[in-house]
Amino acid sequence: MKQISIREIAEQFNGKIFGDETLHISNVARIEEAQKGDLTFLYLPVYEKYFPITKASAIIVKRDYNKTRDDITYIEVDVPEIAFREIIINFFGTEVNLEGIDKTAFIYENAKLGSNASIGKNVVISAGCKIGDNAKIFHNTVILENVELGDDVIIYQNVSIREKCKIGNRVTIHAGTVIGADGFGYTQDENKVYHKIPQIGNVVIEDDVEIGANVTVDRAAMGSTIIKRGSKIDNLVQVAHNVVIGEDTVIAAQAGVSGSSKVGNRSILAGQVGIAGHLEIGDNVVLIAQSGVSKSILKPGYYFGSPAKELKTAFKLEAHIRSLPEYSEKLEKLEKEVKHLKEQLANALKQDKS
């Protein structure tokens, strides 16, 4: 079992130790699941409730944290979540184990492999492909003609990459994802019969992008579907033809971006967000889970609902919707009062006439 000195961990981030400086850590864990010998961290108030009961031996906290337990060792750092991430990478990260070229792989003669590229079982690399240095392509992946992969790319098992797609450096694509399938493009004739529009473009994925499992990124009808540098896409996301995703944008599971829409830089699409076609989402826009976007949103900020509205407006509307039963009762009461007043007025008029 791996044993890491608490001093060695603290030195990585200029952390200050409070407690047992001779302690050794064998694992990292979430605060609510940690056991003796584990290191955990605390950075959000919502997890404070687990601090009194965690069984962790050590915890990473913000500077000047209120240390109410003396049976746990503290490491104070500036940003606990960043420090914890780096500790996992440096000390406890899992290695991507794939070396050499498996004898079952089929690589066309004119495909070019970079130095130290690793190819798994039953991989197909088609004619004209260029594979960068230190690339790792796992089992059963199929790469069609004239695809380019950059350096330090990791392609996990059962990925399909269609012809002419270009993938940058340090890109990770997880299992079951399809890059470059045909976009959903059809036209109707006078008899309402659908005819396929040829999808002759490609997909361009820039450097430092990570794409989750079972994602589909469709090729452009013409030109390119583009995912720009540093963006991260969760599992089960659909990116349609001719979409452009900006730099450092995050898209969560089950979201979908329809054809020819553009999403700006540093934006966030939470789970199950849907964006209609030919729209533009600006920079620094956050779409809360299950929002539906039917019009372009260019102003930075938080949006929610279907159709999506600025968050404050959406929450006000939601509050009114939840109050509809109460409003209905009040309206019914008012209607009865008005009816009663009308009857009284009518009776008073009759008496005056008489």
- Identify the overall geometry: flat
Strand order of the largest sheet: 10-13-16-19-24-27-30-33-36-38-39
Number of structurally distinct domains: 3
**CATH superfamily label of the largest domain:** Hexapeptide repeat proteins
Task: Please characterize this protein's 3D structure.
With 354 residues, the chain is an alpha/beta fold. It has three domains: 4-92, Udp-n-acetylmuramoylalanyl-d-glutamate--2,6- Diaminopimelate Ligase, Chain: A, domain 1 (3-Layer(aba) Sandwich); 159-313, Hexapeptide repeat proteins (UDP N-Acetylglucosamine Acyltransferase, domain 1, 3 Solenoid), CATH 2.160.10; 323-354. The chain is built from four helices and 39 strands. The strands form six sheets. The chain has an eleven-stranded mixed sheet, covered by helices on one side. Strand 38 (301-304) and strand 39 (309-310) form a beta hairpin. The radius of gyration is 29 Å and the shape is flat. The mean pLDDT is 94.
Q: In brief, what are we looking at here?
A:
By secondary structure, the chain is α/β, with parallel strands linked by helices.
List the helices and strands and how they pair.
Layout: E1 4-5, H1 6-11, E2 16-18, E3 24-25, E4 27-28, E5 38-41, E6 58-62, E7 73-77, H2 80-92, E8 106-107, E9 112-113, E10 118-119, E11 124-125, E12 130-131, E13 136-137, E14 142-143, E15 148-149, E16 154-155, E17 160-161, E18 166-167, E19 172-173, E20 178-181, E21 186-188, E22 194-196, E23 202-205, E24 210-211, E25 216-218, E26 224-227, E27 232-233, E28 238-239, E29 244-245, E30 250-251, E31 256-257, E32 262-263, E33 268-269, E34 274-275, E35 280-281, E36 285-287, E37 292-293, E38 301-304, E39 309-310, H3 311-322, H4 324-353
Parallel strand pairs: 4-5, 5-6, 6-7, 8-11, 9-12, 10-13, 11-14, 12-15, 13-16, 14-17, 15-18, 16-19, 17-20, 18-23, 19-24, 20-25, 23-26, 24-27, 25-28, 26-29, 27-30, 28-31, 29-32, 30-33, 31-34, 32-35, 33-36, 34-37, 36-38
Antiparallel strand pairs: 1-3, 2-7, 21-22, 38-39
